[in-house]
TrEMBL record:
Site entry: Cleavage: 281-282
The UniProt record lists the keyword tRNA-binding: no
Protein name from the UniProt record: beta-aspartyl-peptidase
Taxonomy of the source species: Eukaryota, Viridiplantae, Streptophyta, Embryophyta, Tracheophyta
GO biological process terms held by the UniProt record: proteolysis
Catalytic residue list: 282
First-tier enzyme category under EC: hydrolase
């Protein structure tokens, strides 16, 4: 099996500090090989390792062997290497280094500029009207403060806007055009058209394909562009007085208020075909700085061809990301409309608080969703306060990127469902 590729759900990396009661675990060599070495060779090996001080072994079983001294650490969804490098440059700085919060902002900002996978930053994921909007979140694990923006228009710096919300307001989440006005008033550039030639071409092709696939269900016309209305709406005048009043004042689309709300209803085939990494993705990043402080954040331009006004899990605390200095952090990606119903990252962190190892916490959070939605697509990574990390996924192959003090560069870990 190749390094960093693990079956089923888990890609753990076990890291720690060598102590005098040294115990080496080698998945390729029996423990007896160490004891059979000549004393002089064993002493030399021990001296070299103690001189190096830090060690890090990829283990199938997970768990930390000894205390952690791998800080700083940066973890990100997907092989977004440049984003991880940008965060690393901040957090590895001399002395105490940069803060975890600043590193997360730097990493997510790099992904926004690079338009990672076309699903982060401006120029990607047009909605039904062809417009690109941004969602972002930043969380400080020391204070539990959060700043977020959702469905933000005309400002390209999503994660920086979220940080401004956290640092300069008593609120957690600002949305839509008011989030835009706030961000510009606080010094971010705008208004700016967030569309690109690529996003507009994608939108034009989608329109030519009769607006398929899309996120509507139980509506007419089912196989064409809107406007849409519920399939079971009766002719006007045959409804009860309350329904008549709603239609009269709000229009027929509000008849959805009177439909049964079965969250577990299977989605239609058009909806399923929308979800994949390149049109439904998020950068979610967690950082532990040199002081052991934890932060997490996300940035995304949401689901491609989403209904205008849709907000995914990106700016929802506990869904796309969560961080707590006392425990660790989590990041998530995938079908945010389903995942936000379960707050998987909050679940991961609370499971680790109760003593679960990162891989078990990640698998547990994903299994809670897959039991209710067997066809959902998503993934999480988990990292505890010692720097031990793991991932779990369902419905696709997931990769996440890591850089810590024992690595010469970013390393990518693969998780299969």
């Amino acid at each position: 099996m190749r390094a960093h590729e693990w079956p089923c759900h888990v890609c753990p990396l076990t890291c720690g500090t060598v102590h005098h009661n040294l115990e080496l675990i080698d998945t390729d060599s029996p423990r007896s090989q160490l004891s059979s070495m000549a004393p002089s060779n064993a002493g030399l090996l021990l001296g070299l390792i103690l001189l190096r001080f830090n060690w890090c072994l990829a283990l199938g079983g997970g768990g930390a062997a000894g205390g952690g001294s791998v800080f700083p650490v940066v973890v990100s969804t997907w092989p977004f290497r440049e984003a991880v490098r940008a965060a690393w440059e901040v957090v590895k700085a001399g002395g105490a280094g940069g803060s975890a919060v600043d590193a997360v902002v730097a990493g997510c900002s790099a992904c926004e500029v690079l338009r990672c996978d076309g699903t982060v930053g401006p120029g990607g994921s047009p909605d039904e009207n062809g417009e690109t909007t941004l969602d972002a979140l930043i969380m400080n694990g020391i204070t539990m403060e959060i700043g977020a923006v959702a469905a933000m228009r005309y400002v390209k710096d999503g994660i920086k806007a979220a940080k401004l919300v956290m640092e300069h307001t008593g609120h957690t989440l600002l949305v839509g055009e008011k989030a835009t006005a706030f961000a510009i008033s606080m010094g971010l550039a705008g208004p700016t058209d967030l569309s690109s030639p690529d996003s507009m071409e994608k939108w034009s092709n989608w329109r030519q394909n009769h607006c398929q696939p899309n996120f509507w269900k139980n509506v007419d016309p089912a196989g064409n562009c809107g406007p849409y209305h519920p399939t079971n709406i009766p002719p006007f005048g045959s409804m009860d007085p309350v329904q008549n009043a709603v239609v009269e004042t709000q229009g027929p689309t509000c008849q959805g208020w009177f439909e049964s709300n079965n969250l577990l209803e299977p989605t239609n085939s058009h909806f399923k075909s929308v979800i994949n990494r390149h049109n439904h993705d998020t950068i979610s990043m967690a950082v532990i700085d040199k002081m052991g402080h934890v932060a997490a954040g996300t940035s995304t331009n949401g689901a491609t061809f989403k209904i205008p006004g849709r907000v995914g899990d990106g700016p929802i605390p506990g869904s796309s990301a969560y961080a707590d200095d006392e425990v660790g952090a989590c990041g998530a990606t995938g079908d945010g409309d389903i995942m936000m119903r379960f707050l998987p990252c909050y679940q991961v962190v609370e499971s680790m608080r109760r003593g679960m190892e990162p891989r078990d916490a990640a698998m547990d959070a994903i299994s809670r969703i897959s039991r209710k939605y067997p066809d959902f697509v998503g993934a999480v990574f988990a990292i505890n306060k010692k720097g031990v990390h793991a991932g779990a996924c369902h419905g696709w192959t997931f990769q996440y990127s890591v850089r810590n003090s024992s690595m010469p560069d970013v390393e990518v870990f693969t998780v299969t469902s």
